[in-house]
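Title: Comparing notes on inverse folding

I've been comparing how different people in this forum approach sequence design from structure. To keep things fair, I'm posting one structure and asking everyone to reply with a full sequence. Here's the target:
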């Protein structure tokens, strides 16, 4: 349980960022496109619940989803939910 509250070292953060950069480069997805995807996802989900879009994280990974042509990229999103209220859906 302690590992959830530990801060990552600057070395680990840099390593994670490099992995994200390399993966986005392999799937031909520029940082601008990643930001547009993030913005669109935030807009859609915000229709149904209140989220913390400033702390939302998205990334593209290539591990785990093997297809016929080798590894297939997958989009992962970590979206902090502030409130799940039925009022938001009712006001649409």
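Reply #1:
Here's my take.
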């Amino acid at each position: 349980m302690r590992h959830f509250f530990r801060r990552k070292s600057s070395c680990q953060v840099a390593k994670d960022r490099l992995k994200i950069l390399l993966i986005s480069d392999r799937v031909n997805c520029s940082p601008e496109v990643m930001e547009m995807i993030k913005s669109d996802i935030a807009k859609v989900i915000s229709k149904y619940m209140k989220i913390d879009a400033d702390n939302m994280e998205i990334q593209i990974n290539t591990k785990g989803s093997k297809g016929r042509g080798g590894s297939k990229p997958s989009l992962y999103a970590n979206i902090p939910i502030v409130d799940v209220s039925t009022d938001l859906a009712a006001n649409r």
